[in-house]
Amino acid sequence: MSSGKITVVISQAPGKNPAKRALEENLAASLLLEPGIELSIVPHLYDLGPDHTGRLFLESVPGDMVVLAWLFPRAAYWLLDRDGIAGTEGQSPLHPVVPKDEDEDEKEDQAVKAPGIGSALEGPKRTIWCLDLRDHAGHQVYLEEIRRISAEAALLRKARLAQKQTNQPVAVISLGLPTQKPAPSYTPESLLETPGRRWYPVIDYSRCTNCLECLDFCLFGVYGVDGLDRILVENQDSCKKGCPACSRVCPEQAIIFPDYKSPAIAGAPVGNISGLKIDLSKLFGGEDAMVVAAKERDRELVRDGREAVGQTVAVKRRHAEKPAGPKDDLDGLLDTLDSLDI
Ligand code: SF4
Ligand code: SF4
Fold first, then answer.
1. pLDDT, tens digit (0-9, with 9 covering 90-100), for 252-280
2. For a tag on the chain, would you pick the N or C end, based on fewer CB atoms within 10 A?
3. β-pair type (127-132, 223-225)
């Protein structure tokens, strides 16, 4: 960005958890003293509706950005993309790497993953780093990482500027024409207005292959397609609160419900979640994901006064043709408990 500063955004946790607030406040207090940083604080990213000032502010940021949220970085990144806030995803050594065992490495090597369709957005040439505030209890580690990112961003800015000057006609440079509109300013109070809680799916387009199974499966009109027949979440607020059914149906684990209790559905890194070796799903007499999804959908249909459809509508068994997905045994246990409705 033109000021040479990087924008850092802290997205607050929903609710009033004192430990979470303390981390946010300590981090904000330290960042206010840091040179080269523009700090803003917004409510929980997932809850920001299209008219919320926090969302309008995020849309107005023209340059590199660090977003610290109580969400998995994959969820936060695609949530921003869904809101029209696009950029290249920045990598951070802060994201804890869960060790994989040899069997998993082998399975992943054998699995040929089709590339996702990618974001439909023509975003600015900038980088967005998303950090998960649940990864570390103290603020110092985030501060150090933001300093590292800030230095990396400065190098990226120099490289982009050099490239721009090489490509730009000399006449335009000498006229000094403005290339960016100044960002509107928002008061901290308006940014922090508490939004209502929301619930909707977020698509990870780096994984989505546009198979449209989610569109067929959801009977509540949440999904649609754009002018190029690409899947999109068209009516976010028609989604049924607390229901993650279509994420179980997606053969690419591309549907994220960022606030769901199970890491695989909430956007944990795909393929990095496993640990336990026991098949807890079988141990608990559990059902497969498609059966659970159909039951969850039926529950919502009945709540709406409609007929349950069971597995007669759009429940294909693509999972059976695919190598094992990323759900770990803990997820299996949670899914099983969901299906038992206890
Ligand atoms: S089911 Fe998954 S992969 Fe298929 S279109 Fe929907 S999000 Fe994309
Ligand atoms: S969770 Fe249920 S209501 Fe929401 S989009 Fe998926 S299938 Fe539709």
1. 999 999 999 999 999 998 765 443 333 44
2. C
3. unpaired
Which fold, 6-87+123-191? Rossmann fold (3.40.50)
Dist. CA 217–CA 223, nearest whole Å: 9
Indicate which atom in ligand 1 lies nearest the CA of residue 117: 8
Q: Rounded to 5 degrees, what are φ and ψ at 109?
A: -65, -40
What is the residue extent of each domain of the chain?
6-87+123-191, 202-340
Q: Give residue 232 CA to ligand 1 midpoint distance, Å.
A: 9
For 222, residues 6+ apart whose C-beta sits below 8 A from its C-beta are 200, 201, 233, 234, 235, 236, 238, 239, 246
pLDDT over 90 (residue 321): no
Ligand 1 contacts CB of residue 231 (under 6 A): yes
- Cross-strand partners of 203: 255
Question: Ligand 2 centroid vs 236 CA: distance in angstroms?
Answer: 9
* Helices 289-303 + 329-340 axis angle, to 10: 40
3-state secondary structure of 70: coil
Residue corresponding to tokens 């998995």? 72
| Cα of 339 from ligand 2 centre, angstroms | 16
For residue range 69-84, what is the model confidence (pLDDT) as tens digits? 999 999 999 999 988 8
